[in-house]
């Protein structure tokens, strides 16, 4: 089974990314040829869609590799992971005129940096997509005994009650017209569980509230060593 997962991961990563690279190159040439303003939206749409497919290929391949060959956990400063993800999604955040608030201090946990980056990327991208115009997105964390609960909330419409039970199931949204691919939250759950944590969704009066837990890093003696601190935009 592990061999099959690795084979699929390699095929997805290599065999799909190679022709996709050709599409991206063609899109960039097309955009340059029509730099005078003729059909610029078509080239932009082509490149944007290609970037989304490339991201999906990368994340799917990563979770397959993680399932086949789990990585060793290490001490991770979560603030560095969040900063990297905010940088990756900066263009999308600016395009939606999003306001993003996060704590001044982040804790140190035990995890896999690359997997945590994928987790936060999916959660933030999900919030930017569903929070509506001018979204207000808030990051945070709480101490829960031997674990830290990380969360992200937005000011959107939230998840209807009928769809909450299947939020973290793979391909949950594929049957819906014009829906997203439905893989992001299932990837989040898989990578969180591989690191010894759990994830979920809590209904709020306004917006969505997603969370996941991870063990404290062993070098942090008590949760009192750190506090969530004040917020920054």
Rough outline: globular
On the 0 to 100 scale, the average pLDDT is 78
Unreliable sequence segments: 171-181, 221-225
| Sheet of most strands | 6 strands, mixed
Can you tell me about this structure?
With 233 residues, this protein is α+β, with helices and mostly antiparallel strands. Helices cover 46% and strands 18% of the residues. The chain has six helices and eight strands. It has helices at 2-33, 40-68, 78-88, 90-95, 113-130, 184-194, and strands at 74-77, 99-103, 108-111, 136-144, 147-153, 199-201, 209-215, 231-232. A six-stranded mixed sheet has the order 6-7-5-4-2-8. Strands 1-3 form a two-stranded antiparallel ribbon. A hairpin with a 7-residue loop joins strand 6 and strand 7 (209-215). Helix 1 runs antiparallel to helix 2 and helix 5 packs antiparallel against helix 6. It is globular and about 60 Å long. It starts with a helix and ends with a strand. Mean pLDDT is 78; it is low at 171-181 and 221-225.
């Amino acid at each position: 089974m592990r061999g099959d997962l690795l084979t699929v991961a390699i095929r997805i990563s290599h065999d799909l990314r190679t022709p996709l690279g050709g599409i991206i190159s063609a899109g960039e040439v097309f955009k340059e040829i029509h730099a005078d303003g003729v059909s610029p939206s078509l080239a932009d749409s082509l490149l944007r869609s290609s970037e989304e497919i490339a991201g999906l290929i990368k994340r799917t391949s990563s979770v397959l590799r993680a399932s086949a060959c789990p990585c060793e956990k290490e001490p991770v400063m979560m603030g560095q992971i969040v900063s990297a993800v905010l940088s990756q999604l900066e263009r999308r955040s600016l395009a939606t005129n999003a306001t993003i608030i996060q704590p001044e201090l982040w804790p140190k946990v035990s995890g896999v940096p690359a997997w945590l980056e994928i987790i936060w990327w999916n959660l933030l991208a999900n919030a930017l997509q569903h929070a509506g115009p001018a979204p207000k997105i808030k990051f945070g964390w709480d101490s829960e005994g031997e674990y830290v609960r990380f969360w992200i909330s937005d000011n959107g419409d939230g998840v209807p009650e009928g769809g909450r039970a299947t939020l973290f199931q793979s391909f949950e949204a594929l049957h819906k017209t014009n829906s997203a691919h439905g893989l992001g939250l299932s990837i989040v759950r898989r990578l969180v569980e591989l690191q010894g944590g759990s994830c979920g969704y809590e209904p709020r009066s306004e917006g969505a509230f997603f969370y996941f837990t991870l063990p404290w890093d062993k070098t942090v003696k008590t949760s009192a060593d750190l506090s969530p601190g004040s917020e920054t935009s």
